[in-house]
What does this fold into?
Amino acid sequence: MIPFSPPKIYQELIDEVVDTLQSGWITTGPKTKRFEKDLTAFNQNKNTLCLNSATAGLEIMLRWYGVQEGDEVIVPVYTYCASANVVFHCGAKPVLVDVSGDFNIDAEAIRAAITPNTKVIIPVDFAGFPCNYEAINQLVREDAIRSVFRANNPNQEKLGRILVLSDAAHSLGAVYQGKKTGQLTDVSVFSFHAVKNLTTSEGGAVALNLPEPFDNQQVYDYLCVKTLHGQSKDALAKSKVGGWRYDVIEAGYKANMTDIQASMGLVELRHYQETLARRKSIFDHYSEALSRYDWAQIPVYETNQSSSSYHVYPLRIFGITEAQRDQIITAIFEQGVSVNVHFQPLPLLSFYKNLGYNMSDYPVAYDNYSREISLPVYYDLTDEDVKQVIRAVAGAVEHVLNA
Ligand SMILES: *Cc1c(COP(=O)(O)O)cnc(C)c1O
It folds into this structure.
């Protein structure tokens, strides 16, 4: 069976983890700080904070911006539940909007959804392909849109507009107009979950890139406290001579990354260009082979201004129903290949449906979803495996279409 997304475990990774285990310091410490610096150098943003998940990073940034009951946050309907759940955690309302044919949030749908209660937009770089950030960043700076923005705390007054908080869980290393994803918006959040391009088993990072007059170092320092119970010192600082006394300045959260996780991240980032190159070559191989079939809708993952991080290969089949797509997936599995669907749009899931979100309000998302099959992409997938995936997909589609 060809698995969908197994972790890649290699000696250098094991050695770095063992080094941490033997170092006498296993929670947040020197390796986490080094991983943060390496990520900042990679993305060329201002400061980076590593945490235990992307979900924690998104929620912490909503809370940092003071998002609360009565506020609205615009989220694409086509995403993983985390992007919307964090909005509920803050007591605010996710305003779900439709996506475009490239699976990413539709800038005109954002415009139509903005109200005086809108505080944040969370664009999602689906499958690693960057959103239309030129349009999104311009939109939040338009005079007419700024003038309806109602600031009700110091950070909101300082920014004076809607915050763009990218869910870049898929898109580490993707490029848009010559810039990496960590510097495309005010804040970007990466995931290092086990199935993501770069993994620390679980983990995430907040890439800060706030404009003047924000001091990103100061925001970083504050977030370190906020993500460690509001403690004025972290465990490492407390362990130093005379460091035992500390203060608590707020009821903070517990979301720090450990040095065990960071040691995986350090090694993974060192090899990340090779990871991206291998993933791109798998994407190209799929596209080249599948474009020979007139039923195959090849995803866009490179344009003259952007390139993907090649996280998920979202093939669509022209002219099929959701039921046929499901039959095709079963037939692919029967040939020993694991595939997946990214994503079930949120209104298809009970929690959101029961709140009144309705799938028929999002026709493009439904069309994308009902015809989508995600093909496996990972470093260790061999050229022979890729051929087997293509044979399985072609066989399954033709079997179902001719049935
Ligand atoms: C994986 C994922 C997340 C959540 O990441 P965690 O690190 O598991 O919290 C958020 N958004 C999207 C789009 C994801 O795919």
Q: What stands out?
A: Residues 53-55, 79-80, 82-83, 124, 167, 169-170, 191, 193, 204 surround pyridoxal-5'-phosphate (CB under 6 Å). The chain is about 40% helix and 15% strand. The chain has a mean pLDDT of 97.
